[in-house]
Amino acid sequence: MTVNRASARYEGFGKEGKGSITTKSGVLDKQPYGFGTRFEGLPGTNPEELIAAAHAACFTMALSFGLARAGYNGDTLETSAAVTLEQQDGGFTITKSALTLTGKVPGISADEFAKIAEEAEKNCPVSKLLNCEITLEHNLEA
Fold it and tell me: What is the three-class DSSP state of 22?
């Protein structure tokens, strides 16, 4: 079992409040977040951006291991994730995570690449955690 930790601190309330996020690894160290970083494009991060990063990283790693299990030697995999936050029922809900993958995998067919990518999307831990629509677009480069 692996346990990872992060913490958040928020000072003030509502739109005027300001927060910071810190991770145990130190990758994030009092990284600012708040209404402005979430909705107004101000410098800092926000929960949806962090979820997008986690989903892209987790899926790409799962795909890497799936390709290795299938006997392929890697070149590159690049994934972006776009997490959608929508206002619903008087609050906000994460409704979608859209994964976009580009891969270079010598010797694989487009069909096999798609099959292994779809399996990775279904089985990566972050995909399993998310309670939203997940889409996957994939492109195999020659």
Answer: strand
Q: pLDDT for 56-72, tens place per residue?
A: 999 999 999 999 999 99
Could you tell me which CATH class the domain 47-141 is placed in? alpha beta
55 burial type by CB count under 10 A (0-12 exposed, 13-18 middle, 19+ buried)? buried
In whole angstroms, what is the distance from residue 133 CA to residue 84 CA? 10
- Please report the sign of the dihedral spanned by the C-alpha atoms of residue 12, residue 32, residue 39, residue 81: negative
**Both tokens of residue 139?**
């492109």
Q: Could you give the angle at the alpha carbon of 84 between the alpha carbons of 64 and 115, nearest 5°?
A: 30
The domain locations on the chain are: 6-39, 47-141
Q: How many helices (H) and strands (E) does the chain have?
A: 4, 6
pLDDT, average across residues 110-119? 98
Give the whole-angstrom CA distance, residue 117 versus residue 115: 5
pTM: 0.94
pLDDT of residue 126 exceeding 90:
yes
